From TrEMBL:
Phylogenetic placement of the source organism: Bacteria, Pseudomonadati, Pseudomonadota, Alphaproteobacteria, Hyphomicrobiales
Family annotation (Gene3D superfamilies): 3.30.465.10, CO dehydrogenase flavoprotein, C-terminal domain (3.30.390.50), Uridine Diphospho-n-acetylenolpyruvylglucosamine Reductase, domain 2 (3.30.43.10)
One Pfam family hit: CO_deh_flav_C
Protein name: Xanthine dehydrogenase family protein subunit M
Domain FAD-binding PCMH-type: 1-222
Key words of the record: FAD, Flavoprotein
Keyword Acyltransferase: no
Protein's organism: Phyllobacterium phragmitis
Highest taxon in the source lineage: Bacteria
Ranges in a coiled coil: none
InterPro entries given in the database record: CO_DH_flav_C, CO_DH_flav_C_dom_sf, Diverse_Substr_Oxidored, FAD-bd_PCMH, FAD-bd_PCMH-like_sf, FAD-bd_PCMH_sub1, FAD-bd_PCMH_sub2, Mopterin_DH_FAD-bd
């Protein structure tokens, strides 16, 4: 790890001012950033610690929306009983991520901005990686691609977005509020992460001097009939091979509308409107769920080692639809 300077911010304005200096990064929980610094993926000059900022760790559940501060800890949100009852998809996405120790440290804002776990990205200059060194190439294209993306990739990058929480937020049409030199802005979480295209090192739409301060989830009837279903190599402490966030608006036994987002298979959280449309106005049955699962994976382009994700992803979606439907039937 290279030497760096450190300050502790007292106000949001201090953070924004600090970010104007080249090579400055925000430190919140640090559960991802420290790793990348040790690997020399992040070679920063200055850290500005925002952990003590006031008013950014709140959890508010109102009649019109849920508001979550960017510094709220993953474990606090996952364990919030009212949130878990109203939006099980959010609680499950957080509870199935990392270990309890990491969830006790990691913040929601940092979780949204975590970087890929692609081994070629993290394992140094021995491997070409356009995310780490633009223009150097993508070793995964001809390498081991078992854990890489089938959707949203490009010739420059096929790294999977690793998070769970953002997938659930995309399914729920959530927004973030950010603060930068120009003031506050709102963005759809679905727009936060960029497709890699020819510039995979530019991962989000945020400006260099902009920070996430709040996450907002609209209150809606589909919140309770929801789930986050995650398949991984081991039951805990592992990233998704495939995952699906599903939320259903159900009246009686009819699915009025559906929201589905995929994780573990794409370069960013991946919404699947065609699969959602297939469910709208239909009564749940296993055949319909399987068809929607296959539709969700339409357009996937498997590599040499990750073709198994086609069927696994479809089954993951189908099972998530069944779980959400069962919850809706009990309301």
């Amino acid at each position: 790890m290279k030497p760096f300077s450190y300050t502790k911010a007292r106000t949001e304005e201090e953070v924004i001012a600090s970010l104007s200096s080249p090579g400055t990064r925000i430190l919140a929980g640090g559960t991802t950033l420290y790793d990348l610094m040790k690997l020399d993926v992040e070679t920063l000059a200055h850290l500005v610690d925002i952990a003590s900022l006031q008013g950014l760790d709140d959890i508010r559940l109102g009649p019109e929306r849920i508001e979550l501060g960017a510094l709220a800890r993953m474990s606090d949100v996952a364990g919030h009983p009212e949130l878990a009852a109203r939006y099980p998809v959010l609680a499950e996405a957080l509870a199935k991520a990392a270990s309890q120790q990491l969830r006790n440290m990691a913040t929601l804002g940092g979780n949204l901005l975590q970087r890929t776990r692609c081994a070629y990205f993290r394992n140094g200059l021995h491997y070409p990686c356009n995310k780490r060194l633009p223009g150097s190439g993508c070793a995964a294209q001809e390498g081991l691609d078992r854990n890489h993306a089938l959707l949203g990739g490009s010739e420059a990058c096929i790294a999977v977005y690793p998070g769970d929480f953002a997938v659930a937020l995309v399914a729920l049409d959530a927004e973030i509020e950010t603060l930068g030199p120009g003031g506050r802005r709102r963005h759809k979480v679905a727009e936060l992460h960029r497709l890699p295209g020819s510039t995979p090192h530019v991962e989000t739409i945020l400006e260099p001097e902009e920070m996430i301060i709040r996450i907002m989830v609209p209150a809606a009837p589909y919140g309770r009939a929801s789930t986050y279903h995650k398949i991984r190599d081991r039951e805990s402490y592992a990233f998704a091979l495939t995952s699906a966030a599903v939320a259903l608006d159900i009246e009686g036994d009819v699915i009025r509308s559906a929201r589905i987002a995929l994780g573990g298979v794409a370069t960013r959280p991946w919404r699947v409107p065609d699969a959602e449309a297939m469910l709208a106005g239909q009564k749940f049955d296993e055949r319909l769920a399987r068809e929607a699962g296959r539709m969700a994976m339409r357009g996937a382009q498997p590599g040499r080692h990750n073709g198994f994700k086609l069927e696994l992803g479809a089954r993951t979606v189908a099972e998530a639809i069944r779980i959400a439907s069962d919850r809706g039937a009990r309301l």
